[in-house]
Amino acid sequence: MMVTNYILAFIYFAVAVTVLLTVLLYVFQCDLLYAAGFPAGSRSTVARPSQYDLPDKEVILMTSDGVKIRSYVMIQRDQNGEDLAIQSPTILWFHSHTGNMGHRLPVAKVFYEKLGYNVVMLSYRGYGLSEGKPNEKGLNVDAQTALDYILHHPILRHTRLICMGQSLGGALALNLVSKNEDKFAALIIENTFLSMTLLIPHALPALRHLVYLCNQTWRAYRAIQHIHHIPILLLSSLKDELVPPAHMKKLYEISHTTGGKVWKEFENGTHNDTCMQEGYFKAIADFGLKYVWDLSDQE
Ligand SMILES: *[C@@H]1O[C@H](CO)[C@@H](O)[C@H](O)[C@H]1NC(C)=O
Ligand SMILES: *[C@@H]1O[C@H](CO)[C@@H](O)[C@H](O)[C@H]1NC(C)=O
Ligand SMILES: *[C@@H]1O[C@H](CO)[C@@H](O)[C@H](O)[C@H]1NC(C)=O
């Protein structure tokens, strides 16, 4: 009799704990997925472009749902006016699920100085010094806000536009381009996943049975199939420890864009060090020269 009571009590306890953990997981899923506080200090300190000798222009954008987000806008400079900026492509660059735009300034510096692009980057809502809390719907609004800013900018609206995203930023780029394809000349994604639901069993194995709780779906595999005409460059680190490289391969396979698909893999690259691999910027530069720059009016 005693023993059955103990067993019953244990079962009640286990059920209560499971329910509690499940509820907590549901409520805090966004904090888990959007690691805006990592690395430490990411929510209070954001590096400035001037620290990298880049044009130091921060623009505060107001989203359609009333959130103030921060962006850096770096426009090519020419003593003789705006010609250089207008001839240069503009890259709209989306970061991953950690950190803020300041961490990516070394990459922006190469885009700006070596590749000659105008650069627009942002810290999504709830990242860096941007207001709000991150979630899928909100990040999509942020991306659209940045695009609308470019489309209304006196110089940038005349430029050819490249959308680029790393990891989660790639899923965001795919979403944005799939809804605004006629505004873009090209798309670049790096170490992106097929969807959050397909990624979780690999990235957070302990939660694989709770995937159904996750309402942040990020269906990149669907978005890429809605991109029909523009060229896509896919950058894949084969030693990616977070997103299995098979996800990128599959995105490549299911894309049916008529503009051209370019695959570039890095045998020693991991999830967030692809930009340090040999050939990374060359792949982006070559892709830009082939598909984006219009040099026909130059002598
Ligand atoms: C997703 O779940 C969170 C709870 O963590 C909730 O706040 C949010 O509104 C949900 N989003 C959608 C789109 O259902
Ligand atoms: C990858 O690493 C191996 C072992 O260190 C090295 O031999 C190889 O050259 C590297 N490959 C590239 C493309 O850097
Ligand atoms: C990149 O990934 C490595 C290993 O996964 C980690 O130690 C490092 O802190 C990460 N950096 C950023 C900025 O996320």
From TrEMBL:
Single GO molecular function: palmitoyl-(protein) hydrolase activity
Spans through the membrane: 6-28
Residue span, AB hydrolase-1 domain: 97-207
Recorded GO CC terms: membrane
Cited Pfam families: Abhydrolase_1
Entry keywords, A to Z: Hydrolase, Membrane, Transmembrane, Transmembrane helix
Domain of life: Eukaryota
InterPro entries given in the database record: AB_hydrolase_1, AB_hydrolase_fold
SUPFAM superfamilies from the UniProt entry: alpha/beta-Hydrolases
Record carries keyword Transmembrane helix: yes
Protein name: Alpha/Beta hydrolase protein
Lineage of the species this protein comes from: Eukaryota, Fungi, Fungi incertae sedis, Mucoromycota, Mucoromycotina
